[in-house]
Structure formats: structure tokens, C-alpha cells
Amino acid sequence: MPRNRRVNRLLALVALVVVSVFIVRKINHSATPQVSQQQQEESLRTTAPKHPGSSPPSPNPLLQEVGEPDGILTHMGDTDRRRANATLLSLVRNSELRGIVRTMQDIERTFNSKFNYPWTFFNDEPFTEEFKRRTQAMTKAPCRYELIPKEHWEAPPWINKDIVAVSGQILVEDDIMYAKQQSYHKMCRWNSGMFYKHPALKDVRWYWRIEPNTRYYCSIDYDVFRYMEDNDKTYGYVINIYDAPQSIRTLWPTTMEFVAQHPEYVNPNNALRWLTDSEIRPNHNAIANGYSTCHFWSNFEIGDMDFFRSDAYDKYFEYLDHAGGFFYERWGDAPVHSIGLGLFLDKSKIHWFKDIGYLHMPYYNCPASKKCSGCHAGRFTDAGYLNRENCIDNFFKYVHAD
């Protein structure tokens, strides 16, 4: 099918979905809680006996003594001090200088003063001289300051602004954060499938994503990049949570369209059951049309860009990009990365860095470790009602804990 016809077809489908959702919500809004309750009760009746894992959550592993991960480790005093081909990566605005400086203090104190990996900062606007001066002063490692090309940042030409306006209002009515903040949508798209295409990273393999105003609580005495490389890991995370299903209604159906066209990309040892669980949060699965919404919270991630550059992931991103959901809905880079990893990667290559104490408000990863301070062991959040957003038990149930 010619590209223009395909784009027009996708736009028509998206428009139909947007209008349908709008009409259904307006006409049948009062019935939604009843349907959700029926779905939940039916799910519990029909599936609970089949999966004993739906019983009460397992003991919190962060309350047990947490040490360094098993496997090959490279420490500061080791003879083999070869560094991985890696960078600390941060997408940050000039206005976030104070926040990134504080986070750099944590990273340098806990890790990078020992291993001296370079920093690469990205912005859609030129960095100020003050930003460069103050960030470089925080580290002995080299810093690079990169401008994102317009064609990587701006909405692509096939995005229909009228649909964006209508769908944005639906997101607002669903209380979706940043619904009409176009810079947020652009950021999600860039982090999903554009960052690894930047010329500054073309010869770099590994990255550790660092965000301003995040905190790090534990001394990291081994090289995390070498750990990933030497132990055949591809992706590392610390927090595993649910997403707002109203923000990604068509992400899973669009993914299934791609998979139907490219079944060869699906890894036999995948994490599909984690991605499609409907027992614990059945209403999430229903609203997201088959997706549990569980995902790795990507404000912390240590990853192999060779995976994202692979045909499987890169073509997947291109398919999503042309569907328009980064702008017509609020597809985030976290669920997009997680679905790509969960389908196309051997799940044994995913690692939980449970020994790294971390905070991105309002969620923590706090291990019981003598190397940590200022982080209450086992804490997930200070807001009790948010504990239900933790999806780590689901990951243990369907995938593994390493």
C-alpha cells in the first residue's frame, strides 16, 4: 500500500477511535463503574484458581539483606579496569539546572567518581554557558552538550492537529497528566525511539538514563555497565509500576497489528504474560484493550542501545510513530520500551537493580543494605494509596527475579 494511503488510513482509524471514545464516554459514562466491577468479579471467578500467584503478595525482597548482584563484577581496585562503551545520559532543560546538579552530586558520590564515565546532555534548545559551567564543575568526567535535531523532536508531518486537539480534550477529561502539554508528548516520542539515533550516540553502546531531581541513596562499588556487558544483560530497571490505562488505549492493539505482520520478531522466551495479566488490575487491562499496563519506569534505565537499534525494536517504533499515539493519546516511552523488551527480548536479559536505592517522586526503590543511607528499607511510596501501583510482584510471578 502506498505510504500516503497508509497514512490516511491510519489517520481515519485514529479519528474513528477518538470520536468513538468521546461518544461512549459522554453517553454511557454512568455505566462505566458497573462494567468495571463486573469485569473484575468475572476475572476473579474464572482465573484465580488457575494461578495461585494471585494470592497475597510475596514478602518484600527489599526487606531482606540486599547485596551486589550475582555474576561477574568489576570493582574499582580490580586489575581489569576496562570500561564499557557507555555514557550517563540526560535529557534536561536549562531551567532544570538546579535539579540536575543535585542529581549529579548523588551519581558522582555513589558511583561515577569511581568509574569516570562521560556525561551526555540533550536539549531541544541550546544549553546556556551557565548550565555547561555548573554541570562540568560537578564531575571530573568529560561532558558533552548536544542539541536535538528539529526532525527528531517536532511532531512528524503526518500528525493531524485537529485530532490532537479533540483527543487532548478527552485526555484532560480523563485526568491524564500533561494531556495538552505538547513538549511532554515530544519528549515521550524522543525517548521512545529517537534518542539512540542522535549522531552523538552513534558509536556508543550503553547508556544510563539520569533525570533531574532524582535521588540515589546507596554506594555502587561495581561497574554497572560492565555488569550488564559481562553477564549478558540488555536492560536494567529499579521500579516496575502500572500506567494510566486511559493514556494508552490503542497502544496494545497497535502493537498486535505490528506483531501480526512480524511474528518473526517475537522472542520465544518473552514476557507476554507480564504484559497481558488481567487478574490483579482487570480494569486496567480492559481499558488498555489487553495490556496490563505494567512497565519499567524509564526515568531510571540502564540499557543496551544495540537492542533499540535492532530491526525488531526500530521497526516497531516506526509503526507506532505512524499510528500517531504519541500525540493522539499519551503513549509514554516507559510502556513502549517495556512492551518492546517484553516481546522481542529474551526475558532472562532483564535485570532488577534492587541494590540501587532510588527516588523519583513519588516512588522509591529502597533496599536493606549497609551501603545505603536516607532510604527506608522496603519503602515504595510515602502515599499509602499508591502502593497498589507497584507491579513488581507481577514481574516475579510471570518472569523472574535475578
Compact description:
The chain has helices at residues 3-28, 32-47, 97-115, 129-136, 150-153, 161-173, 182-193, 224-230, 251-261, 272-276, 282-287, 305-308, 311-323, 325-328, 333-344, 392-398; strands spanning 86-91, 119-123, 143-147, 206-209, 215-216, 235-237, 240-242, 294-296, 301-304, 350-352, 358-360, 363-365.
Descriptive tags:
alpha/beta, three-stranded antiparallel β-sheet, 12 strands, seven-stranded mixed β-sheet, 42% helix, glycosyltransferase, Spore Coat Polysaccharide Biosynthesis Protein SpsA, Chain A, 402 residues, single chain
Account of the 3D structure:
The protein is of the alpha/beta class. The protein has one domain: Spore Coat Polysaccharide Biosynthesis Protein SpsA, Chain A (Alpha-Beta Complex). Helices cover 42% and strands 11% of the residues. It is built from 16 helices and 12 strands. The strands form 3 sheets. The protein has a 7-stranded mixed beta sheet with strand order 3-2-1-4-9-6-10. A 3-stranded antiparallel beta sheet has the order 5-11-12. Strands 7-8 form a two-stranded antiparallel sheet. Helix 4 (129-136) links the parallel strand 2 and strand 3 (143-147). Helix 1 packs parallel to helix 6, helix 9 (251-261) crosses helix 13 and helix 13 (311-323) crosses helix 15 (333-344). The longest helix is centred in the N-terminal third of the chain and has 26 residues, at 3-28. The chain is globular. 40% of the residues are buried. Residues 9-13 and 16-56 have low confidence and may be disordered.
